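User:
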Amino acid sequence: MLNIGLISKWHVHAGGYAKQLKSDPRVRIAAVWDEDPERGAKWAQELGAPFIADYDAFLAGDIQAVVCDSPTTRHAELLVKAAQAGKHIFTEKLLAPDTAGAEAIAKAVRENGVTFTISLPCKGDRTVLYVKKLIDEGKLGQVTGARFRRSHNGVNWLPKYWFDLEQSGGGALMDLGAHPVYVLGWLFGAPKRVTALMAELFGTGSDENTIALAEFEGGILGTMETAFVTQGVPDLLEVYGTKGAVYVRDGKVAKNTGMGLRPVPARSLPAGKPNPLSQFIQACLDGAAEPEGLGLEDGILMTKITEAAYASDREGKAITWA
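Assistant: Predicted structure:
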């Protein structure tokens, strides 16, 4: 049995993670901490777990692992302490708003030998795994470009604090835009340069609509699109090559490798992977450092690309990879 402590209910996914943990016989929610004591105490009561207001006392308690849903700008502070206390770490994306914070977390995790997992769920999706398989097997020829879009109308329903940069560190790209960022980084590696345009349409004080473009090794151009201001827009992943292209739209796959655009039946897709939280629990029980594709380097790369995109929009120029 793995005793898990919950760090904050700030993130909108926190409730879903807690629900999954409550239904998993491998774990027990042993304690709750929250930077908002009133919210944390109420949540702990709902979960039937003790609320511990002092973070150091929380880490010193009867927990072996933590699930972090705190404000993104507090990840480095909280997760470095958790690692130093010997606690295994599962964290919501982004790892940190900046590379310095991400690398500080990585250093603490490595020095203390704890299991680490970051929530990058698209990496276990059957359709994305199929796209990666086509690329790796050369079925698309030389890849020349890619596009990933994920957006919703969150400006209408996300909590107001979601747009507070002191807590979030950024807007749409920092949150929902993490998906296109980490998927294209996974498919093609670190980019050579990044440029981005961001717009604020409804006065939230953060980026609400973003398009980022990255040049990857071999001249591959990748477009990363995200927004909190769209309605009814399907998720989209496309990859183009000299011998064909593949398209994923709302979970359905089609490809054209010289015989016209044809749907790919579900039975042809590889098996998906368990969700990241489930993989984290198993990694902790197995004594593994991290699940494949959900580890420290994945989190750091995502932060670096995101940080470069914000710098590009702020400075009005492309940011060359260093």
